[in-house]
Design a protein that fits this description.
Layout: E1 2-6, H1 15-27, E2 32-37, H2 39-46, E3 56-60, H3 71-77, H4 82-92, E4 96-101, H5 105-116, E5 126-128, E6 130-132, E7 139-143, H6 153-169, E8 176-180, H7 191-202, E9 207-212, E10 224-226, H8 229-254, H9 258-266, H10 268-278, E11 286-289, E12 294-297, H11 304-318, H12 322-336
Parallel strand pairs: 1-2, 1-4, 2-3, 4-12, 7-10, 8-9, 8-10
Antiparallel strand pairs: 5-11, 6-7, 11-12
Helix pairs in contact: 1-11, 3-5, 4-5, 6-7, 6-12
């Protein structure tokens, strides 16, 4: 099994991307990492590390798509970019099972849709990050988290179906699915919510439990939160910003007095556990649900540890029938309707 790596995607490429990839190779067996990008630069960087040379390959790509470029134009024009070359290999090589990139989110999503292709019946794929909750050992899936700013009711219904199937494969039985809204009452929400709410309620394939507010996403009450890409992305960024601000304020308060410092020392292990639980570096990346193979979008600012976890996440997902089961369920739903 081959996992394709965008060696030149992200704020800290290629150094941190390559370091994270090698860490993943050294930590887990059963896959070959294919680093895609400028061959000579990758070769030079690999000389720093010790690893099984038979498990790391290089696929040359001379161009790089940056976050400043318009995604669709960049994908169409920069055919020899690391993203384009990786998607071509992913589509044509049966041994290639997944692609991981910390590069331009827009370019990765456009490339996955245009170059790799959607699962038959899927109108729009969705970006689906897994988030921690306050309940130990339980996570929540949020989709769409930014791939589709404007959505129709059919998109949200398919997001619910894909998200439910995804978390089932992760071991959650009969996952609870909720619709992101501005209140928990059935009549809350905008025009799109009002239209899709009864549709979700009538879907036999999912366990729809109603509306959920953004403040309750991390409560652990539900397993899947469905939203249009605009609302989902705003909620995700708000959660990230709120958590980051809270941790900074706690640190400032702890170090502002002797009493705080003593208390901080006594609670050091507890604070470390909380930080680790909320740190995106430990959660890998976001899966792009609805395309033909596994595509994991790592955080743009990922360093070695975060990217290692994204690679290991891709390996795990590649061994699960997520894509196949989504395809079956979408086909079944289309046939019934």
């Amino acid at each position: 099994m081959k996992i394709l790596i965008d060696a030149f995607g992200g704020d800290n490429s290629p150094e941190q991307i390559i370091e994270g990839t090698i860490s993943a190779v050294n930590e887990k067996d059963g896959f070959t990492a294919v680093l895609v990008g400028k061959e000579q630069v990758i070769k030079s960087e690999l000389e720093k590390y010790s690893f099984d040379k038979q498990r790391v390959e290089i696929l040359n790509a001379d161009e790089v798509i940056t976050c400043e470029e318009e995604p669709t134009l960049a994908i169409r024009r920069k055919l020899n970019s690391s993203i384009n070359v990786a998607f071509k290999e992913l589509k044509e090589n049966l041994d290639a099972k997944a692609f991981v990139s910390a590069g331009s989110t827009g370019a990765v999503l456009v490339g996955a849709t245009l170059k790799l292709g959607r699962i038959k019946g899927v109108v729009r794929p969705a970006l689906a990050p897994i988030l921690p909750t306050i309940i130990d050992g339980k996570n929540v899936l949020l989709l769409d988290a930014g791939a589709n700013a404007d959505c129709k009711s059919v998109n949200l219904c398919q997001f619910a179906l894909m998200g439910s199937e995804y978390v089932k494969q992760l071991g959650v039985e009969n996952p609870k699915v909720a619709l992101l809204s501005n209140g928990t009452e059935d009549e809350k929400g905008n025009a799109l919510n009002h239209e899709v709410f009864p549709m979700l309620k009538d879907m036999k394939e999912i366990n729809f439990v109603g509306n959920i507010e953004a403040r309750d996403i991390l409560s652990g009450e539900v397993d899947v939160v469905v939203a249009d890409g605009f609302s989902g992305n705003v909620a995700l960024k708000s959660l990230e910003g709120g958590i980051s601000t809270l941790l900074k304020l706690l640190k400032q308060k702890i170090y502002s007095s002797l009493k705080g410092k003593i208390g901080g020392m006594l609670l050091k292990s507890e604070f470390s556990e909380i930080r680790a639980k909320l740190d995106y570096n430990n959660n890998g990346g976001a899966l792009f649900l609805g395309v033909e193979k596994v595509v994991v979008k790592a955080h743009g600012s990922s360093k070695a540890t975060a990217f290692k976890n994204a690679v290991l996440q891709a390996v795990s997902y590649a061994n699960l029938p997520i894509t196949e089961n989504i395809s079956k369920n979408i086909s079944k739903t289309l046939a019934e309707n």
